[in-house]
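Morning run. Coffee first, then this:
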Amino acid sequence: MRHIGIVAVAAALVTAPVAAQRARQLEIGAFGSYARYDRVFQLDNQLGGGGRLGYFLGDRVSLEVEGGYQSPTPWGGGPTAKLTLASASLVFNVGGARHLFYVLGGYSQVTFGTAAPYDFSESAAHGAIGDRLF
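And here it is:
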């Protein structure tokens, strides 16, 4: 698995510049989400949403930040959880006008709320490999 990541990063550094993306370009997006919570949380499934902001530092490298929000209700009543998501990623992009292959890594934090029993948060490193189709 490690070899795939090394090959992907090497390909990102030696291929031609991305035709669809240029340095100093800004991308803004919104998204909807649906979460199905584990039974241990005793929360109803919930719709939510968020936004994403990306900035191309060069033709192949970009920074992205993302934020999301949901407010699921407990099965038996009580305080509502206020789930917030924040993440930041460094992205390496390769591709052309019709698709954009990417490899990214970064940091994420999920906060469930400030009232018991949902007064906790989790932090983690994240990574992804994908292809954006236009």
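Residues 7-19 have pLDDT under 50 and may be disordered. Good start to the day.
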